[in-house]
Amino acid sequence: MFENKTEITNKIIVEFSKTIEMFDLTPAEARLFTYLYLEEKPLTLDEMSEALGKSKTAMSNSIRNLANLNLVTRVWKRGVRKDLYKANTQLFKIFVNSYINKWIDATNFQKMSLAEIHKNVKQINKPIMSKEELATINNYLEELIEFHNEIESLFTDMKQD
Amino acid sequence: MFENKTEITNKIIVEFSKTIEMFDLTPAEARLFTYLYLEEKPLTLDEMSEALGKSKTAMSNSIRNLANLNLVTRVWKRGVRKDLYKANTQLFKIFVNSYINKWIDATNFQKMSLAEIHKNVKQINKPIMSKEELATINNYLEELIEFHNEIESLFTDMKQD
DNA sequence: AAGTTTGTACAGTTTAAACTGTACGTATAA
DNA sequence: TTATACGTACAGTTTAAACTGTACAAACTT
Fold it and tell me: Start and end of every HTH marR-type domain (chains A, B) (predicted)?
């Protein structure tokens, strides 16, 4: 089956990174996270680059995004100049939190955009369309905004659990 | 503010399609769904193509994916040769159901892949790594599989609500 | 003070996804 | 039976995302 440890960890990286791509990570970010997770000791950008066959610049961009999502932590070690990073290990908590936050933020932002359109539509007094058309558009906007409310509630409830 | 109805519906399409892209739709699929949603009568591929400025082939591919996700319904009308499609209108139900199903399916699939790796690792009897290394890998696999179980439960619970 | 290391901004290249146009098989209309 | 319409497979093109390599500023080492 498996001939060595590297083969096993590579297989795990391939499979687990597929899972966490679903949390809106790029393939490179997903593989980097998985590699850090399986590698107990913190890694430098150069080590990440060498391990994953990507440029240092690509690793810098990926690790920054992972850090912004609170999926990895920068580690300070005395006498070491290079930045060190390690994966956060409470997988369910960190991924679901990050994901729920992203959904709530984005949903709220979109709801506000639609609410703005709705406000502007209500303030129309020029005869640019019939009353029926205006009522229809208002109905659609209300439905769309209600949809956002429901999505927001769904993810807010998930956060409590 | 708005000068005509088309301007309003275009603005709504832009904003709402951003929301539903989050359900793993491509920008073209999201715009198509939103257009169908706002357009009460069912549309043909040619009408979709003309309305959204994309080729008929692109519309064929997009509408097929939306139908596969149960987000739109093909409508049969006597004496009409062209396929007709309309958006399903219970937004929360159709999007959340589609999304939860996708998560449960994908998570289950990945869990099985990792379980297969785990099974193979357990069957290792050749000395390809130390006992400590083997124990560590087994621990990681258990954690990753447990993570999948938790994600699956999370989305299964969402389905009940 | 000078040299080296480090991470990242930036510009250009590559890759993968999305697209278009054509060809084709099937179904319908004439 | 023949012609036309229709949706989609397929091949090639375009676009957007991801990448690499270089340059640079800041920090550290010598």
Answer: 23-74
B151 in the same domain as B132:
yes
pLDDT digit string (tens) for A20-57?
999 999 999 999 999 999 998 999 999 999 999 999 99
Q: For residue range A79-104, list pLDDT tens digits in order.
A: 899 999 999 999 999 999 999 999 99
| Alpha-carbon span A75 to A21, nearest angstrom | 24
Q: Which nucleotide is nearest to A67 (CA to C1')?
A: C7
If asked whether residues B74 and B10 sit together in one domain, one would say: yes
Q: Does A106 touch chain B (CB under 8 A)?
A: yes
Q: What is the extent of the structural domain holding A11?
A: 5-89
Rg (CA), chain A: 23
Final residue belonging to a domain, choices A89, A115, A147:
A89
Distance A61 CA to C3 C1' (A): 28
**Interface predicted TM-score (ipTM) of this complex, two decimals:** 0.91
C29 C1': nearest CA residue: B81
CA of B62 to C1' of C14 (A): 27
Which residue's structure tokens are 């499979």?
A15
pTM (two decimals) = 0.92
